[in-house]
Amino acid sequence: MEPIQASGYTVYFNNDCYVWLYENVKPEMYSKLFIIVDSNTATHCLPLFLQQLETDVVIEVIELEPGEINKNIDTCIQVWHTLAELECDRKGLIINLGGGVVTDLGGFVASTFKRGIDFINIPTSLLAMVDAAVGGKTGVDIGALKNQVGLISNPKTVLVDTTYLGTLPSEEIRSGFAEMLKHGLILDAEYWNTVVAITNLINDDLDGAVKQSIYIKNEIVLKDPTEKNIRKKLNFGHTLGHAIESYCLENDDKKTLLHGEAIAIGMILESYISMEKGMLSETEYNSIKKVLIGIYEKVIFTPKDIEGILKMLIHDKKNEFGNIQFVLLESIGSAVINKNISNALIHNAFKDYLN
C-alpha cells in the first residue's frame, strides 16, 4: 500500500514499515531504542516485531500494565524513572508498540522526557491504527476523566502493519471498527456504506478500509492540526461517549466499556439529537441506529446513571466558557461542530436508545 503523507511525518504500511526501520534506526542516528509495550503486546506482538526488526542499536523493553485504568501520570513517572535508570539521552528513540493506551501514553512520555525525544507509533489494535496513533495527540487521564493532560506532538513516523490485527480478540476489533464507522458518518457517505458492508472483520476488505480511515482522519488533521475548527468533527459520538466510558470506569456496578463500545452508544445518542434538531433525517437516523445496535451490545442505564453521565460532560475537552459543545450530523457523511444541546434532549436520546 502507498504511504500517506501526514504533517511532518509519513504513515507506512505492512512490509514498508520494516524497510523504513532498517534505513532509519541505526547506531549513528540513535543511542538506544526503547520499546514500550503492555503485557498483552509483550506476549502477542513483540516477538513478531523483533523478528522483523533489523538494527544494531541497543534495545530495551519497557512493559506496562494494560488497560485504560493505567493510562495516568503515575505510570508516566514510572516510565520516566526507567528511562533515566537505563541512561536514555536526547538521542534515545521510543517505539510505542501497542494500542491506544500505549501510543497515547508513550507519545506523551517521549515528548516530555528531556524536553522531547523522537518516538515512533506502531499501533497493534484496530482502534490505534485508525485513530489513536495518527494525528499527534498524546496524553493521559486524570482518574476516570479521559485525556485531561497531554499535548499535540507528532511522531517521527507511524508504521501500520495489519498483521497485528490477527492477535486481537473480536471485541477489540469491534471497538476499533466504531471509529471507522464514525469516519464515514462525519465525512464520507460512500465510505460509510463500504464499512457497513464489511461483515467479516478480519479480511482483505478490512485491510483496505483501515488505510482509507487513516486517510480520512489525516485529511482533517492536515487542515486543522490543533483542533481549533474542523478537527472537532472527529469527536462525533465522543462527547457523550467519553462521559459514558468514564462513568462506567468509575462505577464498580457498571461493566467497564471498551472505547469503541462507549463511542458507538455516543454516536447513536448524538445521531438522535441531530434528528430532533431537524438536521438528520429520520430515515438516516434509523439506518445508523440499526447498524450500530447490530454490532454493539445494548447497555442499560438507569435514571441515576444518566444523571451521573450528564455530570461528566462538564469535563469534555471541547467545552468553551462553560458551554458543552456537540458535534452533530446534517446527513450521513456531513457533520457540524459547536452545537449546544439541552439536558432534556439528552434524556430523550437515552430514552430512545433504551427503547
Structure characterization notes:
This protein has helices spanning 15-24, 39-44, 46-52, 73-85, 100-112, 126-132, 170-187, 189-196, 204-223, 238-250, 259-276, 282-295, 303-312, 343-354, and strands at 4-5, 10-13, 32-38, 58-64, 92-98, 118-123, 137-142, 145-152, 157-160, 326-331, 334-339. It is an alpha/beta fold and 355 residues long. It folds into two domains: 4-167, Rossmann fold (3-Layer(aba) Sandwich), CATH 3.40.50.1970; 171-354, Dehydroquinate synthase-like, alpha domain. The strands form three sheets. The chain has a seven-stranded mixed beta sheet. A two-stranded antiparallel sheet has the order 7-8. A two-stranded antiparallel sheet has the order 10-11. Strand 5, helix 5 (100-112) and strand 6 (118-123) form a beta-alpha-beta unit. Helix 6 (126-132) runs parallel beside helix 9 (204-223), helix 10 (238-250) crosses helix 11 (259-276) and helix 11 (259-276) runs antiparallel to helix 12 (282-295).
- Helix percent band: 40-55%
- Average pLDDT over all residues: 95
**How would you name the CATH homologous superfamily of the largest domain?**
Dehydroquinate synthase-like - alpha domain
First-last Cα distance: 44 Å
Outline the low-pLDDT stretches.
none
- Output the number of helix runs: 14
Largest sheet: 7 strands, mixed
Structural class: alpha/beta
Number of DSSP-assigned strands: 11
Q: Could you state the order of secondary-structure elements as H and E?
A: EEHEHHEHEHEHEEEHHHHHHHEEH
What's the architecture of the largest domain, going by CATH?
Up-down Bundle
Q: What do we call the CATH topology of the largest domain?
A: Dehydroquinate synthase-like, alpha domain
Order the strands across the largest sheet as they lie in space.
1-2-9-6-5-3-4
| Assembly status | single chain
- Shape type: globular
Write down the Rg.
20 Å
Overall domain count: 2
Domain 3-dehydroquinate synthase N-terminal: 62-174
GO cellular component, one term: cytoplasm
Enzyme class: lyase
Domain 3-dehydroquinate synthase C-terminal: 176-319
